[in-house]
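Review form for a predicted model. The reviewer records the input and the model, then writes brief findings.
Reviewer: anonymous (R2)
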Amino acid sequence: MPVAVFSRSTESHNQDKVSLGTIAARDAISMCELVSRVVAIELMASAQACEIRGGLDRRPRISGLVARVRNVVPATFEDRPMDKDIARMSSALFEGPQLSDNNRK
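Model under review:
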C-alpha cells in the first residue's frame, strides 16, 4: 500500500507538507528483511532437494552453492524448528561472504 495514503493534510487542506520518506524507508527495510527470509527458505529447500536427488558430483556449480549453504546451516534429517536456521541463512544473505562466488566473473 502506498505510504501517501497515510498522509495528513495541513493548513485547512490547502497543502500537504508531511514528509513520508522516513516511513517509506522503514517499510522498505521491512520488505527487504521479509524477502531475505523467503530467499533463505528457498535456498535451504533447494539445497536439501539437490542432496536428496543426488548427482551433485556432475554439477560443480550447484555443488558449490550447496556447499556454501551447508557452511551456514546443516541439512535437515528430522522434524525440528528451523527458525534459527532461517535467521542464520537470512543474515548470511545480507553479509554475503559465505555465499558469494568470488571466482566467478
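Findings: The chain has a mean pLDDT of 82.
Further findings: Helices lie at 21-53, 60-72, 83-95.
Recommendation: see findings above.
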